[in-house]
């Protein structure tokens, strides 16, 4: 029996559900199922019974739970104490963040850094598309990124039960634009507009490019820039439109702009915690997850 299995077991018991435990641990449900099957096989016991009210502990499961809690508590205390004895060496982690996730989660990330003085944290900012590739190539360790998943060697586990689970998409334009008073606009509505855009390092840059070819306005993208503030300040000069997360609006005070919701199946992007599939999960990673969940 591994400590990780014991922690998984306790999480399942307390969540009373494999799926809810998987969400809280940021692992997949099959990972938990396989771990419990191995545990039951190792001791030739049954840990859970399924009832109309959900999972119920067997006598063996109850014994493991009651004693396991104390074991895990003592183990975590031992690990934290040993880490505190380090004098010269620090664990180093590289966390990938988009501009938006950096702004939305910086309070939790700052608290995580303050609580882990023995960990050297590097924050690396880029678009989700680029960060997924950096993660696959080993240039970062994990990150807060947006879907869709584009790299097969990583897994992206959605943020759930937090205040922030994703972002909406708006078409930002000068208030003088004839579409600015619409409740929403589609790409078909935008086919005659001039575009400025984020680069392909960003999911919205990819969306803009893909739809521009689909609707035939690819030659109308006149300016590409990854600084969203520069894009907003360029809209009137180019008399253009740009796709940006709607949540940027609360951080911006650029005058004479309208933020119109995009009417499209790609008008919402969930976000999640991304890591390589072969990553060895550490206590530091779990502490980071717990910090982010406090948002």
UniProtKB/TrEMBL annotation:
<dbReference type="InterPro" id="IPR005119">
    <property type="entry name" value="LysR_subst-bd"/>
</dbReference>
<comment type="similarity">
    <text>Belongs to the LysR transcriptional regulatory family.</text>
</comment>
<keyword id="KW-0804">Transcription</keyword>
<dbReference type="InterPro" id="IPR036390">
    <property type="entry name" value="WH_DNA-bd_sf"/>
</dbReference>
<dbReference type="GO" id="GO:0005829">
    <property type="term" value="C:cytosol"/>
</dbReference>
<protein>
    <submittedName>
        <fullName>LysR family transcriptional regulator</fullName>
    </submittedName>
</protein>
<dbReference type="Pfam" id="PF00126">
    <property type="entry name" value="HTH_1"/>
</dbReference>
<dbReference type="Pfam" id="PF03466">
    <property type="entry name" value="LysR_substrate"/>
</dbReference>
<keyword id="KW-0805">Transcription regulation</keyword>
<feature type="domain" description="HTH lysR-type">
    <location>
        <begin position="1"/>
        <end position="58"/>
    </location>
</feature>
<dbReference type="GO" id="GO:0003700">
    <property type="term" value="F:DNA-binding transcription factor activity"/>
</dbReference>
<dbReference type="InterPro" id="IPR050950">
    <property type="entry name" value="HTH-type_LysR_regulators"/>
</dbReference>
<dbReference type="InterPro" id="IPR000847">
    <property type="entry name" value="LysR_HTH_N"/>
</dbReference>
<dbReference type="InterPro" id="IPR036388">
    <property type="entry name" value="WH-like_DNA-bd_sf"/>
</dbReference>
<keyword id="KW-0238">DNA-binding</keyword>
<dbReference type="GO" id="GO:0003677">
    <property type="term" value="F:DNA binding"/>
</dbReference>
């Amino acid at each position: 029996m591994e400590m990780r299995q014991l922690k998984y077991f306790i999480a399942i018991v307390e969540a009373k559900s494999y799926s809810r435990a998987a969400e809280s641990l940021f692992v997949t449900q099959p990972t938990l199922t396989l771990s419990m099957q191995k545990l039951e096989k190792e001791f030739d016991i049954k840990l859970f019974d399924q009832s109309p009210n959900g999972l119920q502990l067997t006598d063996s499961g109850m014994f493991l739970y009651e004693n396991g809690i104390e074991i895990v508590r003592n183990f975590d205390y031992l690990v934290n104490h040993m880490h505190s004895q380090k004098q010269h060496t620090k664990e180093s982690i590289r966390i990938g963040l988009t501009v938006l996730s950096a702004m939305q989660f910086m309070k939790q990330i700052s608290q995580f850094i303050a609580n882990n003085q023995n960990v050297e944290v590097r924050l690396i900012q880029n678009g989700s598309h680029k960060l997924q590739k950096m993660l696959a190539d080993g240039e970062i360790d994990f990150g807060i990124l947006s879907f869709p998943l584009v790299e097969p060697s990583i897994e992206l586990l959605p943020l759930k039960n937090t205040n922030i689970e994703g972002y909406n998409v708006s078409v930002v334009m000068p208030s003088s634009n004839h579409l600015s008073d619409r409740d929403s606009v589609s790409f078909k509505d935008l086919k005659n507009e001039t575009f400025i855009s984020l680069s392909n390092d960003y999911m919205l840059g990819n969306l803009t490019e893909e739809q521009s070819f689909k609707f035939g306005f690819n030659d109308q993208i006149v300016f590409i820039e990854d600084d969203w503030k520069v894009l907003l300040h360029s809209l009137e000069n180019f008399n253009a439109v740009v796709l940006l997360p709607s949540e940027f609006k609360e951080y911006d005070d650029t005058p004479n702009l309208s933020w119109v919701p995009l009417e499209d199946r790609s008008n919402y992007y969930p976000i999640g915690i991304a890591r390589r599939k072969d990553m060895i999960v550490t206590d530091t990673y779990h502490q980071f997850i717990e910090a982010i969940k406090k948002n």
